[in-house]
From TrEMBL:
<dbReference type="InterPro" id="IPR050267">
    <property type="entry name" value="Anti-sigma-factor_SerPK"/>
</dbReference>
<keyword id="KW-0067">ATP-binding</keyword>
<keyword id="KW-0614">Plasmid</keyword>
<keyword id="KW-0808">Transferase</keyword>
<dbReference type="GO" id="GO:0005524">
    <property type="term" value="F:ATP binding"/>
</dbReference>
<keyword id="KW-0723">Serine/threonine-protein kinase</keyword>
<protein>
    <submittedName>
        <fullName>ATP-binding protein</fullName>
    </submittedName>
</protein>
<feature type="domain" description="Histidine kinase/HSP90-like ATPase">
    <location>
        <begin position="33"/>
        <end position="136"/>
    </location>
</feature>
<keyword id="KW-0418">Kinase</keyword>
<dbReference type="InterPro" id="IPR036890">
    <property type="entry name" value="HATPase_C_sf"/>
</dbReference>
<dbReference type="Pfam" id="PF13581">
    <property type="entry name" value="HATPase_c_2"/>
</dbReference>
<keyword id="KW-0547">Nucleotide-binding</keyword>
<dbReference type="InterPro" id="IPR003594">
    <property type="entry name" value="HATPase_dom"/>
</dbReference>
Length: 154
């Protein structure tokens, strides 16, 4: 099991599950409710994918999807922001989840500071890259998820 500390994450260190099993996970990584959270999430995702042997276009797509989901949580939801990553080898897929504290009553700083045509493409990007994606509302939280196939990993 590998352990890595990432700047900007509030859980330390982050433990990756064994890469050889039926599934591998990074769960419960609490990110700061700040714009820098997207950068930390990309680094965490890249390290996990490398540990699991997922690379190339699949890894690039997964990192972009995580970045978009975290950015949406920072801009449109309340804290906390928690990142979960699952590599399900039996289904040949990645499941990427961002759990937030539910909708914010006001827009984030970036969205509030720009024109309406300068934002709003994140979920379109997620939809184009993921084989499935969606939202699961919960009591006091919302989970935004996306699944990507791992075929094409090297």
């Amino acid at each position: 099991m590998g352990e890595t500390q990432f700047p900007g994450s509030e859980s330390s260190p982050i433990a990756f599950s064994e890469a050889g099993g039926a599934s591998a996970t990074v769960t419960g990584v609490r990110l700061p409710h700040l714009p820098q959270a997207s950068s930390a999430a990309r680094a965490i995702t890249a390290a996990a994918l490398a540990d699991w042997g997922v690379s190339g276009e699949v890894a690039e797509a997964a990192i972009l999807v995580v970045s978009e989901l975290v950015t949406n949580a920072i801009e449109h939801a309340r804290p906390p922001v928690v990142l979960n990553l699952i590599c399900d080898r039996s289904r040949h897929q990645l499941r990427l989840e961002v759990v937030d504290g539910g909708p914010s009553p006001r827009a984030g700083r970036w969205v509030a500071s720009c024109e309406s045509d300068e934002h709003g493409r994140g979920l379109g990007i997620v939809g184009a890259l993921a084989k499935a994606h969606g939202v699961h509302p919960g009591a006091g939280s919302t989970t935004h998820w996306a699944c990507l196939p791992t075929e094409g990993s090297s």
